[in-house]
Design a protein that fits this description.
Chain lengths: 111, 112
């Protein structure tokens, strides 16, 4: 079983629609990171959330860290085809610098 | 800056063959990692190296060995490839101040 569970596994939407993907765990994390991976490439960091209840915005992307620091969400407003990719959440486990990754959500935005 | 580079980009092996995947980073990071990525399973840590001269097993180390040749380079070796090792392999290094991991472009390995 994954330490970090991501849902949904797949999401296909029309350009202009909104979407939310989730990252949940039964464990508390000191921080959570979100990465985006495009086909044929390695993951690239989007954001790190550190404080329980924290909300961070990157243009049309909004990231939230749960109050209990066990979950996080990523909301995309007015999705564009360029948002297509695999979204991965990751967090350090047991205060270790190594990261545990969720299985990811594959997002497809149709033009 | 090139960041993290990996070679080769693609490889096909027959069962029992051996090969070494190469990784190098030019960001002066101490920590480096090898992951494998399989559909529906995310990234799983194979081995990692906290600093030059040290290596440790990750979640799925069986069938693999690593060498931290110097601060820049971290290689992954498959001594006797098996079909279960068909996967995409990623090397990464991390910035200690932010815990951000920087990934290479990956090696797509098929074992027949």
């Amino acid at each position: 079983t994954q330490l970090l569970e991501q849902s949904p596994q797949f999401l296909s939407i029309q350009e202009g629609e909104n979407l939310t993907v989730y990252c949940n765990s039964s464990s508390v994390f000191s921080s959570l990171q979100w990465y985006r991976q495009e086909p044929g490439e390695g993951p690239v960091l989007l954001v790190t959330v550190v404080t329980g209840g924290e909300v961070k915005k990157l243009k049309r992307l909004t990231f939230q860290f749960g109050d209990a620091r066990k979950d996080s969400s990523l909301h995309i407003t007015a999705a564009q085809p360029g948002d297509t990719g695999l979204y991965l959440c990751a967090g350090p486990h047991n205060n270790d610098y190594k990261l545990s990754f969720g299985a990811g959500t594959t997002v497809t935005v149709r033009a | 800056n090139a960041g993290v580079t990996q070679t080769p980009k693609f490889q096909v092996l027959k069962t029992g063959q051996s090969m070494t995947l190469q990784c190098a980073q030019d960001m002066n990071h101490n920590s480096m990692y090898w992951y494998r990525q399989d559909p529906g399973m995310g990234l799983r840590l194979i081995y990692y190296s906290a600093s030059e001269g040290t290596t440790d097993k990750g979640e799925v180390p069986n069938g693999y060995n690593v060498s931290r040749l110097n601060k820049r380079e971290f290689s992954l070796r498959l001594e006797s490839a098996a079909p279960s090792q068909t996967s995409v392999y990623f090397c990464a290094s991390s910035d200690p101040t932010t815990d951000t991991q920087y990934f290479g472009p990956g090696t797509r390995l098929t074992v027949l």
